[in-house]
Structure formats: C-alpha cells, structure tokens
Amino acid sequence: STLGGQVGGSPEEIHTNEKEVTEKEVTLHLLPGEQLLCEASTVLKYVQEDSCQHGVYGRLVCTDFKIAFLGDDESALDSDETQFKNKVVGENDITLHCVDQIYGVFDEKKKTLFGQLKKYPEKLIIHCKDLRVFQFCLRYTKEEEVKRIVSGIIHHTQAPKLLKRLFLFSYATAAQNNTVTDPKNHTIMFDTLKDWCWELERTKGNMKYKAVSVNEGYKVCERLPAYFVVPTPLPEENVQRFQGHGIPIWCWSCHNGSALLKMSALPKEQDDGILQIQKSFLDGVYKTIHRPPYEIVKTEDLSSNFLSLQEIQTAYSKFKQLFLIDNSTEFWDTDIKWFSLLESSSWLDIIRRCLKKAIEITECMEAQNMNVLLLEENASDLCCLISSLVQLMMDPHCRTRIGFQSLIQKEWVMGGHCFLDRCNHLRQNDKEEVPVFLLFLDCVWQLVHQHPPAFEFTETYLTVLSDSLYIPIFSTFFFNSPHQKDTNMGREGQDTQSKPLNLLTVWDWSVQFEPKAQTLLKNPLYVEKPKLDKGQRKGMRFKHQRQLSLPLTQSKSSPKRGFFREETDHLIKNLLGKRISKLINSSDELQDNFREFYDSWHSKPTDYHGLLLPHIEGPEIKVWAQRYLRWIPEAQILGGSRVATMSKLLEMIEEVQSLQEKIDERHHSQQAPQAEAPCLLRNSARLSSLFPFALLQRHSSKPVLPTSGWKALGDEDDLAKREDEFVDLGDV
C-alpha cells in the first residue's frame, strides 16, 4: 500500500517525492463489524492554503462506517497533544453519516457530485456536517482507483438506505458479547414505569399526575413511549380513543404546582359527525387540566403560532455555509461581508425567538402559576425543543450532566423526536432533514456561555454531543421512536430464538474518550451550592462587545403574539385543525408581563441553583464559536480566548486545593478527594482558541482587513468609524 509523509511545493516536486513516502505503513483500524469497501493510494490530502500545493500523501479508504485518510502526519504530535482524541472517529476519519456534500474539481471548476459519473474529478472536496472540509488531490492516483474510490464514496454516502443496513446493526451484532456499560452512567433512560414514577416524585408532580402503562408493548400507539404520564383524572381508556392524539402528556412540574404539558393534534376530519365526536372528547379532556380558579391552563400552539421547520432548515442551510471554507482566500474574501451574511441567515434570530418563547412560558408557570399546554401536530419537534429549554431554565437538576442527559432521554428520545428523519441518516428525504436538535444545543450553549457557573458541563461537552449525532454505533440518535428501536433490536415480537441486540448509548462517554479527555467535559467552575453574593452576578457578565455577535434588527424580530384564550372552544378548534389566526389574542398584556418578569430577574443577583434566564437582546445572542469555527485556522487566537482564561483559573483552583490539603494535614483531618484539574490546559502558551479540537496551527499572514475590500470602505475617516465592524473572527 502507498502511504505517506508530509510534502509540499510544486506538483512536480510533489510527484518526485512520491517514492520517498511509500515506505511507511499506516494501519487501518476497523471497529467490530466494519468492512473495507474500496481504497485508493497516492492520494494527497491538501492543507487549507492559497497555493493548495502543501499536503500529506497517503491512502484514501471507504468502509461501511467511515471515509478515512491514512497519512503519516499524526506521528509528529506528542502524547500531550493527542489526549483529547476521539477513540472511535480519528482526526482524518469521516463517518458516512457525517458527509454533507461532495464536490469534484474539473479543470479548476467546482461541481457537486452525485449519481453515476461520466468523468472523474482531479480533486475531491468533502463538506462534513460537523463543518470540517477535506480536500484530496487525485491527480497522481491510478485511474481505476480514482473511479473506484469516488464512485464508492458517492454511493455509500448519498444512496438511500434501509434501516437494517445501517452500520449500527453490524456493530451491535459483532460487538454483542463485548458491550460493557459504564457503571458510573446514572442517566435516567425513561424506558421503565419506575423511571417515570421517580421523575414525578422528584418534581412533586405525583399529586396531580400519574404514570401509565396503557401503551406497554406499543399496543395503543407506536408514536408514544411504552410509559408516560397523564393527568390523574384522565381515564386510561381515553388514551386509546384516538391512538394517543388529543391527550395532554406531562413533561414537568414546577415547585408551585403548575405543570408543563404537551399534546399532539387530532387527525383532521371533514365529516361533521366525527368532528362532533372529537369536540365532545376534547371537551372532557380539557376539563382535566383546566379547573378554574384552582387550575388554569394556557395553550401555546407551536405549529401555527411559532417557527416553521422550513424556516429552521433554510436558516441553517445559509448559516453553515459561512463556516465551510475551502481555503484562506475564500475566508478573507467573505470576512468583509461577515456581519451581513450572518444577519441574512437569520439563524441567530431563530435562537433568540426560541429563548424568548421559553421565557414567556417560564413566566406563565413561575409568576402566574398556570399550567401551559404545548400544541404541535405530532408533539415531537418544537415541543421537544421548547419544553427542554423551559426545564433547563427552571430546574437546576437539568443543568447537571446526569440531569441534562436524562432530560434529552425524556423529552427527545422517549418524546419521539424523529432523529432518523431529521438527521437524514437514511438519505431517503432531504426535505425532512431539519436540525431541530442542533438548534436546541445552540440555545443551550447561549445559556452556558452567559451563565457558566450554573452548568456542570462545558461547551466542549455540547460540541462533542453534537458530533455524536453522526456516529452510528450509538442508538440514541438513530431512531424515530422507542417503538422503532425496540422492534428493530428484537425486543418486540415472537422471535425468542435470537437474543435482543444490546446497543450502546451515547451517554457512555468512555467509549469515545479516555478519562483525562473526559475532564474537559466537566466544568470546574460549576457552583454546587447557591451563592447569593450581590457582587457575584456582576462579575460573571462579559462586557466586551468585540465578539462574534450580531445586533438583530427590529424588523426581523417576531411580532407580538399572545396565548390563546382559555375557553374550551378555542382549544378544540385549534386541535381540530381549524384556522386559528382570528383566535390569537394579540394583547399587550402578555408582552408587559414578559418584560416586567424579564427585567425584574435580570436586575437581581443570579441564584445559579434557581431560576435562570438568558439575555436575549440582539448583541447577547452570539455565534457558538467553538463548534462552528474550530476547523478554521484563520479564526484562532494564539494562546488566547477562553482557553487562556480557563487555564489561569485552573491554576488558581490547584493552588487553593494545595493550600487546603496543607491545612487539612495540619489539623490531622482526613483528606477529601479533590477534583482533578484538566492537565490538558496546563500549558496555555501552546494552545489556541480552537482548543481542544485543534492545537496551534499555521497562522495566516493575511491582514485582519482584507485589502481586496478596501476600496469599498471609503476614505480613512469612514474606515475609522467602521473599525468595530471588521474584527478578527477569532476574537470571541
């Protein structure tokens, strides 16, 4: 096999170096059940530079799990620099599910590749869903190998698949006897009645709500989990009436007794007789949660009165293009238009609208002591998003790592979010691919960024969680419902001969990372007990404005919308699929309540173990720099950004711990085990803002202000006035 070392220079120089780099052998590491499909040798992996003549020789291979480049560049890294590497997916590995678009370069022209090719490219460019960009030169590869590898990659990443043909099943079968679960993983999976009863007891919701097993074996509805929670007065036979539609399902209970519920709409019917039956049914259901003056319910229709999935899909499609950069020239050419491109994508505005909606619902529950009922066609997209954000703001347990993972299990996995369709894992329908879960993680990041001490996990944890969406050895994000998972894993049905497959859960982080690397997932600044020092909150606010943020214009903000009136008929008309535009009460009262609640909370010191609200003013909603910019060398800050601050803080923590140990020794007391500070951050001089996903990289020599755009900026006075508009992307 032809394998490589680092080379550079003209194509002729590269070609003459070919013989020198064929001696070393790099092993292809295969997971259990993984099979090699095709490969090509003498492939040059480019480095992102203007000349595009520097790179690494090696083999490009395609398996039924990943595309991998086997070069010799990794040997230069010392052990300290590779401690955060992922044990499943290497630096030069791309899982087949992570491939977004494939391009070929023909005579210097870039074209999208799909289907059968009549002509094969001299250069292959792969854009990944985690925003990495790979470029491979095929000019020195044998023609037959080029055909084989390009056709193989296109077919195995773009052709529609059957669920059972996913690598997930090959891996589960091959590793069945070797699967070991992490005993330290205490995430609540919500796949038993006991889990739901525990959650009811934890939130004190068991006085008004009950866990039911009416759907055990999925005999009532394949969309719902086997166990869930409903209002206590609701007869269980009502759940069976319309296959789980039109039933208020419990999400969470507040300390004051108010509850957050969700409901999927009833099927649309034209027949007046059936409509009357549905109206009567909903009338009875509604009375179980709306009993004034003791219990009042507010309804929030997320299908008609909020974002559409199409808006989310369109916004993210534009937004991600800002980070899929092929080379330095492209980076600097687009840098001058950064803010206008960012605003035109509307992604940050969508994040703001989601956070604002969650705050409105929080105000309703916390300040007005009302139940809130979220409505959506299937209650499995925006319901998951908003209900999770509300719980994150109101329940400090959800801000711990175990609590957050349990929240995702409850609201997303058991809540029936269609991960298989929304991530387009089967490549069967591009229109169904909508990054709803990624939008949720981006909203969570805003909270983590604004209130770091309130969260036990870090932004690095959120980033690797987003990456895990595309690793098909974990079952967590590869099914549309619990029913689909159980039936395909052999846990349902009459076949008792074969043993049910035991799939890994993404929450077992030891599968992906060594213990030292996992320390970067835990926040050393997490406040375990509330501290109400008046000056504390002011100290935690970040004042610098020269950051990747975008003041959103008023014209793009969402119009004022109110909650539905409480009358039963309005809820019924909404659930029966009628037009509801005339029913929405656009009162200023809700906006006044929201503003008073929002301003009041932000005027007080933050209790990190109490209610937590984000700032949602335009400049406060920022770009999640770690996730989106981590692969772009030009965006790095050498030895700076948050990694430098964190490094100094960890040094202080170590010093305090050392002093505490000396005090303990002096008093002859038993030493308590101290949390180990991440040793990966010890030497901040060697790190950059791209840490821990990329270490010190080539620093671009291009100016912060691209010279190609100077003429458009006007004279020196105008340039001085606008200097804040053109900042280095790394200044986050």
From TrEMBL:
It holds the Pfam family Myotub-related. Keywords: Cytoplasm, Sarcoplasmic reticulum. Residues 190-628 form the Myotubularin phosphatase domain. Coiled coil: none annotated. GO terms for biological process: phosphatidylinositol dephosphorylation. CDD domains: PTP-MTMR12. SUPFAM superfamilies: (Phosphotyrosine protein) phosphatases II, PH domain-like. Its main location: cytoplasm. One of its GO terms (cellular component) is membrane. InterPro entries: MTMR12-like_C (IPR022587), MTMR12_PTP (IPR030576), Myotubularin (IPR030564), Myotubularin-like_Pase_dom (IPR010569), PH-like_dom_sf (IPR011993), Prot-tyrosine_phosphatase-like (IPR029021). It is found in: Cytoplasm, Myofibril, Sarcomere; Sarcoplasmic reticulum. Acts as an adapter for the myotubularin-related phosphatases. Regulates phosphatase MTM1 protein stability and possibly its intracellular location. By stabilizing MTM1 protein levels, required for skeletal muscle maintenance but not for myogenesis. Belongs to the protein-tyrosine phosphatase family. Non-receptor class myotubularin subfamily. Heterodimer with lipid phosphatase MTM1. Heterodimer with lipid phosphatase MTMR2. This is Myotubularin-related protein 12. It comes from Cercocebus atys. The gene is MTMR12.
